[in-house]
Amino acid sequence: MNAPTSPPKPPTPDAKPPVPTLPDPIDLAGVPLHPVDFQQAVSLLIALARGTDNAYAVTANVDHVVRVSRCPELKYLYTEADLTVADGMPLIWASRLLRTPLPERVAGSDLFPALCERAAEEGLSVFMLGGTPGSAEKAGEILQRRHPKLRVAGYCCPDFGFEHDPAQSADVLDQVGRTRPDILFVGLGSPKQEKWIAENRAACGAKLSIGVGISFSFLAGDVARAPLWMQRVGLEWAHRLWQEPGRLWKRYIVEDSAFVGLVLRQVLRSKRSSQNGTTT
């Protein structure tokens, strides 16, 4: 008589769920972008935050793509990231032209509150680094009123240029490292926030780090975000330009115009490759 088989053991409470397999990224003018929709991105990021690998994610927009084309040495910020999503409708349109369509825009300013909501549900801690003075605290208070179980491990708003001062840099790293948050939101602007994360993600102890730009100020109400219709038709940049023309006109009007040429050149290369492939 065969001995009765014992039932499978239930998973231990501390067992970490496996991180879902990522789809292969597409290439957009040298920047890898993962073809995931918003809900997939949130689930993937939460899985990374429950892991142990000091993961980091990038929300890339037109500025990022143009910057990498001009400074190829920054490409590692994207190739080494665990997840890179398209934060901008022009990237979505470009991916369709290239016949490698991305599902939808995944904006960092939408991920920030969505990840905090999931963090509250799953008992994960968050830390907010950067922003303008007081903006992270305001955002945190709003989020904790919405989600009373949200664990905010801390806030830190370093002085402008802190990264060039070894003492200030060490202090910032110490403030984050003492709390070892599950999710570290970094609002230092790009590419500073991506560089800081790539250089310090292991030392700071966060399980997941993600750059979120101006998101603290948006949620705090210090800066008005573009209306939904402008976001949907790819005009959020115009709203930001109207808010801060002196600071943003060169970036949006002069520098980012190079994006069109980058995409058209890639489309032409892709067509030539396809033609060569069919004739050989």
SS field, number of helical segments:
13
Mean pLDDT: 91
What's the gyration radius in Å? 21 Å
Task: Report the sheet-strand fraction.
Answer: 5-15%
Return the structural class.
Answer: alpha/beta
Inertia-based shape: globular
Largest sheet, if any?
A: 6 strands, parallel
Poorly predicted ranges: 1-13
What distance separates the N and C termini?
Answer: 66 Å
Widest β-sheet, arrangement of strands: 4-3-8-7-5-6
What is the count of β-strands? Answer: 8
SSE pattern: EEHEHHEHHEHEHEHEHHHHH
Helix content: 40-55%
Which key phrases capture this entry?
13 helices, alpha/beta, 6-stranded parallel sheet, disordered N terminus, 13% strand, 280 residues, two-stranded antiparallel sheet
Secondary structure layout:
Layout: E1 26-28, E2 31-33, H1 38-49, E3 55-60, H2 62-70, H3 76-79, E4 83-86, H4 89-97, H5 108-122, E5 125-130, H6 135-146, E6 151-156, H7 166-179, E7 183-187, H8 192-204, E8 208-211, H9 215-220, H10 228-232, H11 236-243, H12 245-255, H13 258-279
Parallel strand pairs: 3-4, 3-8, 5-6, 5-7, 7-8
Antiparallel strand pairs: 1-2
Helix pairs in contact: 1-5, 11-12
How would you explain this protein's 3D organization?
The chain has 280 residues and is of the alpha/beta class. The protein has a domain at 33-223. Helix content is 50%, strand content 13%. It contains 13 helices and eight strands. It has a six-stranded parallel β-sheet, with helices on both faces. The longest helix is centred in the last third of the chain and has 22 residues, at 258-279.
